[in-house]
Each structure stands twice: as structure tokens, then as C-alpha cells.
Amino acid sequence: MSAWATRRKMLYGGGFFLTVFLIIAIPLAILIYQRPTCADGKQNGVEEGIDCGGTCSLLCTAQTINPIIHWARSFNIKGNVYSLAAYVENPNATARAVSAPYIFRVFDRQNNLLATKEGVTFLPARKSTAIFEQNLVLDKAKPNRVTLEFPGKILWKKFSGQEPEIKTENTVLTGRDTTPRLDVTVSNPGVDPYQNIELIALIFDSKENVIASSRTIVDGLLGGEKKRVTFTWPMPIDAGEGMCDVPVDIVLALDRSGSMADDNKNPPQPLTDVKNAAASFLGQLRKEDQAGVVSFANEATIATTSVLSNAYDVLKQSITAISIKTGVLQNTNIADAITKAREELESPRHNERAGKVLVLLTDGAATLPRDPAGESVKYPEQQALAAVSSAKESGVEVYTIGLGAKVSSDFLKNAASSAGHFYTAATTDQLKGIYNNIATSICKKGPTSIEIVSRVYSSLK
After folding, report:
1. pTM of the model
2. 302-334 b/e (C-beta count within 10 Å ≥ 16 → b)
3. pLDDT for 410-441, tens place per residue?
4. Most buried one in 8, 88, 128, 414, CB count within 10 A?
5. Packing angle between helix 431-443 and helix 271-282, nearest 10 degrees?
6. Alpha-carbon span 225 to 188, nearest angstrom
């Protein structure tokens, strides 16, 4: 056989075997080979650790800063039931903790471990947040110390966007000495809708110690939407000493309708006793507080000497000058009084650090304004309740005092911020005591500050 024929057979045979090899080897290699991923449990590709760093969305632990735990506390809810809260800061500007296992530990005065609470949370980037646990039952001893730790592996994920923002306004705390209720307006200032929003309320005393905490969930907020949310507590909030460090702006609304001279014309009674009691009330306020005075009959008026200020001597003179107009029947326009008081508490004279308080005194039922259609006798009360609702929405705490037997108690109860904010006085002899109680309540009314911490869980998607 010629050399050429031999070479040709070898060439054909080699080509055949190469073709067979390629047909078998390439699919087999594809089948066997697994492309490096960020979820294969191995450090491969450009990863800086196992499934982290490099092009992976998850960061390695060495690339992040541990969360900063500022405080952890327990709160007695009722009986032997407690809640736990902690304030935690994520100092990482470009990393979220999408899964952060935590554990609360609760100790007694002898440092014995009473209980633990475990969970997993989410820490937004470059923000402080709160972690809250509820319904912890402690039968053996009272808690003295609480700690929070992150014992497990925290999954840190790269984040370069803007965390969702929830705005809060019109924060009003009422019933602090009975069954506290905190009403807050929350809003979504953006255009994208948010779902599954956690809100945690933190209440602080004058020394910036947290004294109460509560949580609620809002299912969703559309872009630009506002909602009113409520936090409640079954027992009074004890703020301890120093509560009067909170300044207050107070408007006294005094009835000067014709019936305020029914007991005597000169001097007009009960108006004269009412003015004396109101002036005495001003003497219990501090220089950090401010007061204003609105008087009302057919309409409400506030003199230039009666606007918010701490010039109490001038305000007392303004109260002394209040009189009942003669020649025209003087009715009771409570709606206008509440509106004028709210406007003064929202004026540039209002101290932004101060609480807003309205103390309304009347000896009768609302009789103005009248229904334009001439149909509803309840129209004056309805208008007054609408005005008081607007005042409460803007953060005004409302006290009401009914003097004598002709008042509409149901109306005044509804107008007050709570049942404990409504007082009745059969005679003017009781007024100074009532004003003293209100002065004490106002002094005790507030913590120094309230913080609402929010987290939007739908942003994790």
C-alpha cells in the first residue's frame, strides 16, 4: 500500500475520532461545569469571601461595621406582662442588614437571667431604628437590666439608594395619668406606594431617658397619602421628676355671654368669679410658658393684650377688662372661640417646643352659629365639635369646664381630649380647685420628646 493511502486512512480516522470526541466531550463538559455563582457555598470568581464581596450583592462581614446598640429597656405593660425595646444604629452608609438575628436577655437585680426573646430584624442603611418585642410574661421577679445582642450571622446587602421616608406630624399624647393614647399623623412624601410599615413610638422624659414604647403596623401608604395612627397603653406613663421642664402654650377661652350675669348684674356673676379664677391660674404658670385669652359671646375676640405671651400681669389686666356687652342679646358661639384659640396656638407667637393647650369654660350650651337652612338645633354644637376636631388634629390638648346646671355635659365631654379633661363646677367656689388640677395636669402632661421610628418592609423586595 502506498504511503499516500496510509496517510489518507490515518487522516480520515483521526477526523472521525475527533468528531466523536467533540460530540461527546462538549455536552458532557457543559453538563458537568457549573458557573461560579453568589449562592453556591463556595468562594469563587471575584468573590472576597464565600458568596460575598466582589460582584455579589451580599457584603462580607469584614466589609461592614457592626450595628451600634444605644440602649435596651423593659417596660411594664400591666401586671407581670412586659415589652422590650432597643435603639439600634446601622452606621453603614451603603449597606443594609436584610437579615439580622438578635436576642434580648432580661436580668433581675441579682443579675439572674429571667428570660430571653429572639427574633430577626432588618436594619436600614445609615439610619437608627428600634427593635420591639411584646407580651413577655415574668412570673418570678421584676426585670432590672436588659441587653441586646446580634449573635448570629448578619446578612449585609449593598444599598446605594434612598431609604423610604415616613413623615410624622400632629403628635398628641393624652390621658397620660389614666390610659395614655398617642395620636400621630403619618404620611408618605414620595410618589411610590409603601406597604407593611412598622411604626414604633418612643417616649422620653426630661433627662432623655425612654419611659414608654409601643408599636403599630400600617398596611400601606400611597404616594402623598396621610393616615392617622394611634398607640395606646393600659396603664399611666410615669415620667418621674422634671416633667414641668416641658413648656406649654395655653389659651383660656372664657364665656362672656349674657347668662354670665344671671346671678348678679353688678358686679356680673358668675363672670367676676370666673375672671378671678382664671387670673389665679395664670399665677401658677412659669416664665417658660405662655398664655393667651379668648372671650366669646356672639363671636370670639382676642385683644392685642391677650395674645400668647408670658407677660402675666398684662394678661391679668386683660382678663379683668372682659365684660358683657349690653343692648344686644349675647349668645354662646363656642365654635368661634375654639377656632380663634387654635389660630393663636398656630400663630408665629407659638413656641415650637411647647405643648398646645386650650381650656374652655362655659355656663351654657352652644347657641351660635345658627343653621343656614334653619333645620338643625344641634348645628351650633356640630360646628363646635368640627372646630375642636381641627384643633386636636393640629396637636391641641383640650380641657373643658362646665359651670352651673345649664351646660351640655355630653357636648363638653366630647369636646375634651379625654374623660379626664372634662370638669363640672356646680358653683364658682369650685373653679380655683379645677384650675389648680388643670395646672397640675399640664405640668405632668408631657414627656420632653416623642420619637416615631419607622421601617418600610416592602422596600426589601
Report:
1. 0.56
2. bbeebbbebebeebbebbeebebeeeeebbbbb
3. 999 999 999 889 999 988 999 999 998 898 88
4. 88
5. 30
6. 6
